[in-house]
Automatic annotation (TrEMBL):
It comes from the Bacteria. Residues 433-621 form the Histidine kinase domain. The chain crosses the membrane at residues 195-215, 224-246, 252-273, 285-306, 312-333, 345-366. CDD domains: HisKA. The keyword ATP-binding applies. It catalyses: ATP + protein L-histidine = ADP + protein N-phospho-L-histidine. Residues 396-423 form a coiled coil. Keywords: ATP-binding, Coiled coil, Kinase, Membrane, Nucleotide-binding, Transferase, Transmembrane, Transmembrane helix, Two-component regulatory system. Gene3D superfamilies: 1.10.287.130, Histidine kinase-like ATPase, C-terminal domain. This is histidine kinase. GO terms for molecular function: ATP binding. Its EC number is 2.7.13.3. Pfam families: HATPase_c (PF02518), HisKA (PF00512).
């Protein structure tokens, strides 16, 4: 198992190296392609002040703000934004050009320029619409392109002013490029290459995650693959790849799906890290926080579907800030035994937090014409799965090491268990052999003793006493043999109790008489003449308790037997000498005997056997040691 896991891990590492080589090659190719495109035409972007709605060339000149108005930049809805775009044609004649405006997910774009009419002064030229588009127009619109929107223009010599009207959030960034057509095609080759490279890298990561699912299926691998797949679909929608490939796809619905996928991406990221953290930190507050984040993501998605954009974007910002903090705190608190895994987990979370903070700062600071927000968003698109994949790989590696150690420990335990089983079997065979060898001569001694008792009826008291002692010793050895045999049968083969009606009073008095304790035992308690239990096992248990009380109590001291009811049971109590108090922790261990009690004989199996019998009878045997007395209480719950 360990070798197979290592082989799979080596394969995955090889694929990762191949992926990195591919990415490096594509990056170099992209740099070369961009360098070959040449310099774009010079252009300048200026924002219109609040309240200015230019409809003539002179009104358009009022749009001269270098920064986006503050109140406009803070808006979360798709409010109209107006700006003046000035493009310079350095040639002496008209020139065909293309205007690229990105990113693709800008909701609506309209382009206006002054119309030249005879007899009008240049400042009185009315603004006429040149073209329009945007994500809401769909991938089938003439201006739709991968990564943005393209508008063909004819530029007069010198400066050409245009009114650019957008509908997008106030913090939306812009990427504007103007190229002379010349021999170039109308598609923005650098942007297409960049998006293709970006999607290719994410798709490669999804392929690696799929390999992990196939080789090592489980919640973590499955969630990682779902996360990367969601990122891939989201980027494909937001970049315009899917809308342009599927022009029949409704534009507004596609962009709503794009925003909902951002929420799903956030929830899936948290879902993945919950699978990594919760096995090590399953606290109620963490589980509740995860559930709340999923619920907020669902509510935000519903708001996007209902076009409640302000509330939806506020919840999105809350999720982007709160979810990473939630998992980072839980990761720091998780008491994992694998140091490397915790370092990777916490490190990936901290890096993710920093990238999110940088993304938000760039989005707020460079909300105008800048590619920095695009760059950081693409870094996040790749960093999120890479960090998660690295953490998962380290976690799997640590799990493999733990599994290998557990397998070694299991092998050692199995070997030890086999040795113990063999030793126990040898001991059982030895006991069986010894008891068999003892029983034959013991039976001979018993027959001889009975014959002598019949012949020595007229003998003196000394002879009679010796014969009684011989008979008592024979019964003691018989009891030890039966005890060992019963213990072996219980431990090795098991015994199924056979329930029947047992007269508890009669059984106790028979045992008292059998053990010669009529003058020492006092029987008290409630009236419970008949109980339903196994007669033989109950007789063995109570006999052991009475024998133990008689053997280890001071000679001639009273023994109390109390019959209990509701639930039924028996309590046996006797006095003990201070130097004969047993160790409560070892009282029911096999072969345990007090150091001062060893001179009294016995096998040390009586109490261990009694507790096992109590369990078979579905009861309990509980000791209680006082200053000068010891009590053993056996109870069985009534059916």
């Amino acid at each position: 198992m360990g070798a197979e896991t290592m082989r799979r891990a080596g394969w995955c590492r090889g694929l990762l190296v191949a992926l990195l080589w591919l990415v490096a090659s594509l990056v170099l190719g992209g740099v070369t392609a961009n360098a070959a495109q040449g310099e774009p035409l010079p252009h300048q972007l200026r924002y219109c002040p609040p309240g200015v709605t230019p409809d003539t060339a002179s009104a358009l000149e009022q749009c001269n703000l270098r920064q986006r108005p503050a109140d406009q930049g803070q808006r979360l809805d798709n409010a109209p934004q107006r700006m003046r775009l000035t493009i310079t044609n350095p040639t002496s004649g008209p020139q065909d050009a293309r205007l690229f405006i990105g990113p693709y997910y800008l909701a609506s774009i309209e382009l206006f320029r002054p119309a030249i009419a005879a007899g009008e002064a240049p400042t009185d030229h009315r603004l006429t619409r040149v073209g329009g588009g945007g994500a809401f127009a769909g991938g089938g619109a003439s201006s739709a392109a991968i990564a943005g929107h393209v508008f063909p223009l004819t530029l007069a010599p010198g400066e050409n002013s245009f009114l650019l009207r957008l509908e997008a959030p106030g913090f939306a960034h812009l990427a504007i490029r103007v190229d002379s057509l010349g021999d170039a095609s109308l598609s923005p080759a650098p942007a297409v290459l960049s998006i293709g490279l970006h999607l290719g890298m994410i798709a490669a990561l999804a392929g690696l995650a799929l390999v992990s699912v196939i080789l090592r299926p489980g919640p973590v691998s499955n969630r990682l693959f779902v996360l990367i797949t969601v990122i891939l679909i989201q980027v494909a929608l937001g970049s315009g790849v899917l809308p342009t490939l599927l022009p029949a796809l409704p534009g507004q619905l596609a962009m709503t799906a794009f925003m909902m996928l951002i929420m799903l991406r956030m929830a899936t990221w948290g879902w993945l890290y919950q699978a990594l953290i919760q096995p090590h930190y399953d606290r109620p507050w963490y589980r509740l926080g995860c559930r709340i984040s999923y619920a907020v993501a669902g509510v935000a998605s519903l708001f996007y579907l209902l076009e409640w954009l302000v509330a939806a974007r506020l919840l999105s910002l809350l999720l982007i800030l709160a979810v990473p903090i939630l998992h980072t705190v839980a990761g720091l608190c998780a008491p994992t035994r694998i140091r490397l895994f915790k370092q990777a987990l916490v490190g990936s979370l901290i890096i993710y937090d920093l990238l999110q903070i940088i993304a938000i700062v760039l989005l707020v600071s460079y909300s105008g014409q800048s590619d920095l927000p695009v760059v950081i968003s693409r870094v996040l698109d790749l960093a999120i799965p890479l960090l998660a994949m690295g953490t998962v790989l380290l976690r799997n590696r640590a799990s493999d090491q733990q599994l290998a150690a557990a397998e070694q420990e299991l092998a050692r335990s199995e070997a030890q268990l086999a040795a113990e089983t063999a030793a126990r079997e040898e001991k059982r065979l030895l006991l069986d052999m010894l008891t068999h060898e003892i029983r034959n001569p013991l039976a001979t001694i018993k027959l001889a003793s009975r014959a002598l008792q019949g012949q020595a009826s007229t003998a003196g008291p000394t002879v009679q006493r010796r014969l009684v002692n011989i008979d008592r010793g024979i019964r003691t050895i018989d009891a030890v043999i039966e005890r060992c045999d019963l213990h072996n049968r219980i431990e090795e083969t098991g015994i199924t109790p056979e329930r029947g009606s047992v007269n508890l009073h009669r059984l106790i008095h028979e045992l008292i008489e059998r053990y010669g304790l009529l003058d020492r035992v006092r029987v008290t308690g409630g009236e419970r003449p008949v109980v339903l239990t196994d007669a033989q096992l109950l007789e063995t248990l109570l006999g052991n308790l009475l024998d133990n009380a008689a053997k280890y109590s001071p000679p001639g001291s009273p023994i109390d037997v109390v019959i209990l009811t509701s639930p039924w049971g028996v309590r046996v109590s006797n006095r003990i000498e201070p130097d004969m108090v047993p160790d409560p922790e070892q009282l029911f261990e096999r072969y345990y005997r007090h150091a001062h009690a060893r001179r009294l004989g016995g096998s040390g199996l009586g109490l261990a056997l009694s507790r096992r019998i109590a369990e078979l009878l579905e009861g309990t045997l509980v000791p209680r040691i006082e200053a000068e007395r010891i009590h053993f209480e056996f109870r069985v719950e009534d059916d």
